[in-house]
Amino acid sequence: TVERQIAIIYVGTNGLIQNVPVEKVKAFETEYLDYLDAKHKDIMNELKAGKYTDTAREVLSKVAKEIASKY
């Protein structure tokens, strides 16, 4: 879906997964997107509607940093 693509492109272009080993990127992607779908459906719906807000960027960054720190 477009909102999942936006979320992944965001983390990639903002260097938020640079410390995730290449072989773990797919696992990160799955965990990140599943978490966003489960806990931040409002943000995902905003992205789907074409609303790319500061709040959305903050949530995408926060969640990505938290999950990336596990790898």
Annotation field: number of helices:
4
Terminus-to-terminus distance = 25 Å
**Main β sheet profile:** none
Query: What quaternary form is this?
Result: single chain
Mean pLDDT: 95
Shape: globular
Helix/strand/pairing class, anyone?
A: mainly alpha
SSE succession: HHHH
Q: What is the beta-strand fraction?
A: under 5%
Features:
71 residues, mainly alpha, globular
Description:
The protein is built from four helices and no strands. α2 packs across α3. The chain has helices at 2-13, 25-39, 41-48, 54-68. The model has no long low-confidence stretch (mean pLDDT 95). It is mainly alpha-helical.
In summary, what is this structure?
70% of the residues lie in helices and 0% in strands.
Helix and strand arrangement:
Blueprint lengths: L1 H12 L11 H15 L1 H8 L5 H15 L3
Helix pairs in contact: 1-3, 2-3, 2-4
